[in-house]
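HOLO CASE FILE
Compound: pyridoxal-5'-phosphate
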Amino acid sequence: MPGFEFFGALERAEVQDVLDSGVLMRYGFDGMRQGHWKAKELEQALAKRMQTSFAHTVSSGTAALTVAMASAGIGAGDEVILPTFTFVASFEAVLSLGAIPVLVDIDDTLTLAPEAVEKAITKRTRAVMPVHMCGSMADLKALKAICTKHQLILIEDACQAIGGSYDGKPLGSYGDIGCFSFDFVKTITCGEGGGIITNNKDFYTHADHYSDHGHDHVGTDRGAEKHPFLGYNYRISELHAAVGLAQVKRLDDFLAIQKRHYHILEASLKKLEGITLRRVPDGGVQNYSFLNFFLPTETLARKAQKELVGAGVDACFYWFDNNWHYHTKWDHLKELHSLGPVSEEIKKRVLNEETQNFTASDHWMGRTVSCLIKLSWSEEEVAHRATTLHRVLDTILTEA
Ligand SMILES: *Cc1c(COP(=O)(O)O)cnc(C)c1O
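Model generated. Tokens follow.
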């Protein structure tokens, strides 16, 4: 997945433009900037690649999620449905708006289970946020039908699946609003950065203003601009945007490499009785940033991950035990370890034990192993990994 593996001349040239003009900020300073508008160009390139009318960039993926929800009018006391398998950023963004994160089970797609989503809907629910974890997507068709039926907003967290598609549409563009992260370990990186895509002009305008203290961006005098509503500062800097601009142009090259490496590794699994691949919904195309598969039991999955790493197949993950990606380790959320006071409505919903049973998620997650696909492997390295992957898993399954 990581674009940082390929940081080179293109990135340096874009950054150099910014350093030469000295305008490190994305707004204003029109005379000084010598025609360089890196954040704007990055947004144009992103909108074009993702086939959406609008794109807006911000300071991180977490900021993208926050700004996306704020732009759709989500605020205090609104419930947002999220999967049990995601990155902590998902619920952080919800909480930062005073809204209520509602965790919901995943299925064998490793993303939101549509039936579980429907069950979790209350009269306070405002949005459903599928998270396309580890390169593949949620059943967006089913989720969209639920959202349409209940008049909810569909927000796609495509931070880990940029470049994948569903039903012919780039991930992030299928719902009402989509979010990307360009942090240092994502498929394309800015160092720190995030992006929002949408076809909804109001959401876009809101995002544009909200992420810059409410500035309406009318005219060329920032000091004289108006503030039609409250905002915050989630701006991306020109330096970061410059790196992102170079990387977004390389996205399809990165995806082609990931896909080639993925298929070589995947082929080595297909001959193994007992290994099942994560389900990709019909009409979905992964971005191939991870190879995700199920072992027959939790014990075997734990063992497989350990032995794969031991045998040199590094960057294989057992998310079930991971502090940052799975609900079992989120005591700080479940018990609301907050530095400051938390609203009564958040307490009431989040501290409710009845809503904390996720055996359906545990069934899948406990058996999942995910191996990161790197860009920089040589052909020999990929072939060697495929052989080792097959050998280690074959031994474990035969002994079992
Ligand atoms: C990385 C990531 C984010 C947050 O992105 P940052 O840029 O690190 O803030 C959000 N959601 C998912 C699924 C991610 O992987």
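CASE NOTES: The mean pLDDT is 96. Residues 309 and 316 are 7 Å apart (CA to CA).
CLOSED: yes
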